[in-house]
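queue> holo job accepted (S-adenosylmethionine)
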Amino acid sequence: MTDRMDDEIIGEFLLTARSLAEYRAMFALTEDDLRGRVLDCPGGAAGFTGEIAELGVSAVAVDPFYALPAKQVCETALADTDRGNAWSATHGEMYLWDWYDGDPEVHRRIRHDAVRRFGADLEAHPDRYVAAGLPALPFPDNDFDLVLSSHLLFTYADRLDTDFHLAALAELARVSRGEVRVYPLLDHSGAALPDLLASLRAALAQRGIRTELRETVAYEFQSGARDMLVLRSASAEES
Ligand SMILES: C[S@@+](CC[C@H](N)C(=O)[O-])C[C@H]1O[C@@H](n2cnc3c(N)ncnc32)[C@H](O)[C@@H]1O
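queue> job finished
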């Protein structure tokens, strides 16, 4: 488990910035997935939303951080990128660096580029970035064709409890008329969470939300993070 020193380095929630290439790999995204209306929650400072908008997707990102001035969000994201990069470089045994050419500096560069893309897109298209937070999203039912959620649920299971996870997953399913994909399913110390996962899947099934585990194949940075959780609500099944 995370010790106090690690907590001081990681902070409450890191404001991370991943690229479209990382999202494609993490969520096994195909060209077919990237069409219509797509939600990224939490969006963090990911370049993903701006990048898919350039491909013609109607993209929206949600994060409580967007309530802060854009300059502060970008400065925090750059500082957090360096903190996160330093943490993973000094805990190298917990990570597989292949996707980043075996080089923490490549990882750092990709994340910095993502922050820059994010900052430019936030300035040009603030409407794409909604300041809100799980478990309550300001969207109608079935509003999105695809909903993605990375590095909040499960990652921070040490501070977000089972009830929060269940309410958050049900909310993500409510706003999706297609799939919800969640990755990774480990916490940030790299621990698997089989009990949490099993109880959430059982509770979601009772609410008519089907779940499956799907291998991501192309991406495994946190050692052992090979699966994503896929949700489909009853209304998504019908459509
Ligand atoms: C580690 S980042 C992940 C960002 C992005 N998905 C990525 O992979 O780079 C975690 C994010 O969760 C956001 N967050 C914290 N509480 C949240 C909540 N209740 N609802 C939505 N996002 C939240 C934080 O502000 C932070 O930006």
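queue> Confidence is low (pLDDT under 50) at residues 1-11.
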